[in-house]
Specification:
alpha/beta; Carbamate kinase; single chain
Length: 235
Amino acid sequence: MKYKRILLKLSGESLMGDKQYGIDGDRVLQYAREIKAVFDKGVEIAIVIGGGNIFRGLSAEKSGMDRVQADYMGMLATVINSMALQDALEKLNIKTRLMTAIKMEQICEPFIRRRAVRHLEKRRIVIFGAGTGNPYFTTDTCASLRAIEVQADVVLKGTRVDGIYTADPEKDPAATRYEEITFQEVYDKGLNVMDMTAFTLCQENKLPIIVFDMNKPGNFMRIANGDGIGTLVRG
């Protein structure tokens, strides 16, 4: 395996599968099996999941809700998704720990960096819920921050497209995929990879990002093995 410790970022929308809302149990189980295959190779895995399949703070703000209130509701949505993935992983006999930035002692541990690192060293998959615990910060920013804190080798952003394109491939059939691109080129070309705070955190800490299609079976294993799929963003 190319990487010893990975931070996997999944969107909340990816858990919907073919549904319009909520959690598709089959999709969650598919992801759990993909993650288990890589974990069984000895890779340490931490995970951050968004909450957009249940609640989006930005959308709620546009409809008149207070932004801070909406963002906290979004954080709770990420915890629901994290619990769903935790359940699926544990059904596959993998030890996990759910750690959140907001205290919820009945269902998870508070995030403590040293404890999170120790869980990873003890061969437990660690899921980080509730974002950074602060409004105005996305789960992309949480993924970048937690990856830096636990000294992950790479951030793997699992999406429904197979990398970063010159334009939106779902709208422009002429769009072409980048195999590799620098942080500065992403800035210069105005490409949408992560929100700017998350992206800058990775750039400043020389943490590479790989954007790939998580829905294609075997892709997570190929990425962890160092195969050149998806798009690598580096310094």
